[in-house]
Amino acid sequence: IMDDEETVRGVVASMLEFLGYEVEQARDGQEAIDIYASRLRTDAPVDVVIMDLTIPGGMGGAKAVREVLALHPAAKVIVSSGYSEDPIMAGYRQYGFCGAIAKPYQLRELERAIRDVLCGSG
Taking the model in full, what pTM does it have? Predict the structure, then answer.
């Protein structure tokens, strides 16, 4: 999970752990890229990345997704934002994302977004 707000990262990480996922947390796009790259070279690569669209003072999801896709074109990346009317949220696929989820979201919405991306619906 990549989000600049520590509280959001913590809550989403707890939700994901409840759903049975192992979670890595990143404060910005560069940290998410670094984690993704390091895990890509292991026997436990990252299955899904959830990226906040806007990171004040840092790399947000729109740029970071391009970097992740350059590392691994088949990467599964979900964009997350509190700005549901943002054009990237509406047309997320044309920006390289596999799915989108508007904040705040509930556990079942998060579970569905991940399942859709992992099972090919996203």
Answer: 0.93
Per-residue pLDDT of the chain (122 residues; tens, 9 = 90+): 999 999 999 999 999 999 999 999 999 999 999 999 999 989 999 999 999 999 999 999 999 999 999 999 999 999 999 887 889 999 999 999 999 999 998 999 999 999 999 987 55
Alpha helices per DSSP H over 19-85: 29-40, 61-71
With contact defined as beta carbons under 8 Å apart, do 48 and 114 qualify?
yes
- Count CB atoms within 10 A of the CB of residue 120: 8
Residues 6+ apart with CB under 8 A from 58: 4, 27, 28, 29, 30
What are the residues whose beta carbons fall under 8 Å from the beta carbon of 104, sequence distance 6 or more?
Answer: 82
Can you point out the beta strands (E) in 10-117? Answer: 49-52, 77-81, 99-102
Q: Containing H/E element for 110?
A: helix 107-118
